[in-house]
Amino acid sequence: MNNIKFIIFVFLALFLFSCNGDSKKSKVRDKKPEKHVVLAKPVPVTELISKIPELAYYHKKLIESLKNDPPVLLLDKSEIRDEKQQKAQEIAIKNKDFIRDVYHPDTKEPLRNEIMIVREALPSDIPKNVKCSDCYYVSMYNYFFNSTTIALTDISKNRVIKVKHIIDGQAELNKRLTDLAITIAINSPEVIEALGINPNEKEATMSNVKTAMNGTKCERSKHLCVAPTFLNHINKRALWAIVDLTDWKLVGVAWTELGDFEGTIPKDKTTESELQNEFVMENFCEKNNDTTFGDWKVNYRLTSSDGLEVFDVKYKDKKVIRSSKIVDWHVSYLYKEGMGYSDATGCPMFSSSAVVAFNGPYVEKILDKKGKKTGYALVQDFRSPIWPAPCNYRYQSRFEFYDNGSFRITGVNHGRGCNTQGVYKPVFRMDLAVNDGEEILEQWTGEKWEKWKKEKWVDQKNAKYTKEGYWMKLTSPAGTGYYMEPGNGQWTRNRGDSAFVYASVWHDDIDEGDTDMVTIGSPGSYDYKQGPEKFLNPPEDLSGQHLIIWYVPRMHNDNTPGKEYCWATQVVENGKSRIKTWPGIVGPKFIPIKK
Amino acid sequence: MSGRKAKLKKKNLQKIKKQKTKSKQQRKIAIYIVIILIVALLGLIAYNLIPDNNSSKKHNKTSTLSNKTIKSCLRSPVFPMKYGLKAPYAVDLRQNAENMGLKILEAKTGRSLQLPGWRKFGYLGLYTLDDHGNIYTSPLPYVSIDINPPKEQNKILIVEGKTGRMSEFMNLPSKNPPTPKNPFGVIGLAFDCETKSLYATSIAGSTFSDESGKVFQIDPANKKIKSTFDNHDIMGVAIFSGKNGKRLYMGMARKPEIWSVGLDEKGAFKDDFRFEFSLKDVPGGSNLKAHRIKINENRMTLKAREFSYTLIAASNSMRTIYTYDYNPQIDKWEFVELHLENH
Prior knowledge:
heterodimer; A: about 600 residues; alpha+beta; Nuclear Transport Factor 2, Chain: A; 3 domains; ten-stranded antiparallel β-sheet; 8 helices; B: Neuraminidase; four-stranded antiparallel β-sheet; about 15% helix
């Protein structure tokens, strides 16, 4: 009996012992601290270079390396442990296969390449049946292709034994980049603010090289990124910073209030796309924001599938726009009639959008040809994940507010779609506020203004313009309001709007786009059947009504060298990849009517 | 008499002595067994605690150990033969502007068959076969929701193996009604040949703040829901019998992770939901979600993509294939490699 008791005791103890480990693990997993995300504000590289001497030195070395043949930034003597490592590096960069991708395959421009690691090869590095008596591992990262090349060198025989190219693969970092990542992070206002103090570099708990490589990924930009992590014992905050070592910038930070949490930093690794999505969802998605530029006061929100919406916009305290947004981007291809897509733009998560918000809205100055500021633009970027790869898209909602009270509602298309026969048709819904009640829409006939009496649509190809370029005007019964000037090639990056204009009656009790709209129209059609026509049937009388203006421009993409339009491509700049775009910008301008 | 008594007494004493010796021996044996068991158990625990630095090499030698593989009962449909296609066939569910719905391809020639009615449910997602050659699939929105409205997405469709007729098999319930903010419904499908259960994952009605997805265990014979696994948004699923029994492996929709839950002898979900591995924690890993899982001979192949409950405009969107091998000695999956689908 005693023996049985003993056996039960042993098994029970073992069982409890084994369970204890799991329960600890599960408690840690359950006790997840609250997470906050912040995207970093862009800082010009020149500013950063002037601020961080280490970066200035590194930048100088990189520029010099581009003039070398091969263009490879080598590990310098302080990073090389002995002569054998030095020899391994020298053997590798003389090998044709190892330096296969150091120049652009078409333009032959030198690309940015950097030796990351030189070390004795581990048994796992050496393939079976390969004899290598004095074997060294050399890795090199290519910033243009976001790829890594590894060489196994036998320094006793002065030759490379094997070369491996890893596409979309990031190498372990060398010490100079590891240090640089920490320096960039701790010089960033977002890191300083999130930690609540100016962090001492010694406190930075940068992941070791391997962990850092596993720690994060810039899957959208395809840049070399690393995640220095910081733990502030005083404020009990743990911070995860994503540093982009291709463009030398902080992407953003994710930080957690640790509370009573003791120990190491939570291993909830955050990547570039997660950081961007969470930040946009937390701050902008279906959340009302406002901003002021001079006499303009603008409310805005990122919608689920109608892009960026501005609403209750005022100029000198007078309401100008009740709501304006792009409800769809229709894309069709000329080579196949009727085929097309209807791309909704909107929130990056939980939405029926197909092209989603990258980062939040931002404001930029509008300058005239002499460089004088004439207003501000509120811009929101929407992208497919791997744009500008073929069949990927990038659109922008851009609202321009000028100091003189005029404004322009635009859609920007950065291409590049599936081929060069694409036709892009953003569907604008514009609810202006020239009057709370009755509004009058008139069209210039070439001689006089003619009032629209019923709901209808017109094609810009038949338009007549005043000498100022105005096509229509929207007024109150008192005559106050705005002229509408469509795109006719008079503005930068505009080849004419080729627009359809529709006017429909706004109804208090029927939702014809006041709230988020599902995709409308036939995206494959080139004619007026873009969706708004369904609100014109049967045509209602416009007199005495508040109106909704629908505006659907058409833009054709073009990749002809020197004439690119709605197009994007990847070019070499300082040895790394830069996306060059030739945007097409469409949309009407509204100019206040002066009495 | 007294001499006889004394003889008997002596005999009894010898018997008792013998019995005592016997029980002593038995006790000794029992103690030895216990000691052996304890040593074995401690050894096993110690083995499990030792970090495995060379697992991939070890795996090659041990991959067939102790785990019971499920014998496949899945059958190909017979209807393609009626339409002149020669086996083997492939189910083609590649969806794009020019290809919507289901197609059957003749593997050797690439000749395709699309019967009337195979486009009526719009764009489709993944599929599984059953033991009668039926094909189960589900609608899945592609670029926009005009062809695949959210309220129509929580359906399982069946293509009958004998006739090729496509129809709605079941419309599954959801905690919250579907909305355009989450245009998805049924995503993953798997068939268990042992319990003849069809498993379907659904994220219909799940919102940013309320994860209310379900996995359904369905009896295809009577279309009854036998059990559900609630409040988890799951994409792809696959069934695998490992060292400690049968489990349903799940690609999570909200995080780049694989979790699993045990299945009992009737195919119902056990209460042992557990983390398996993260797609972010491997070299080159990223924030991708496993939307298709296949397990074949101890090898798990995952097709992962960016997923955030939105639609896709890019027809050339990223797909990354992850490969893991099962190590039965530690009942864990070990990373082998990953690569882009097009490479």
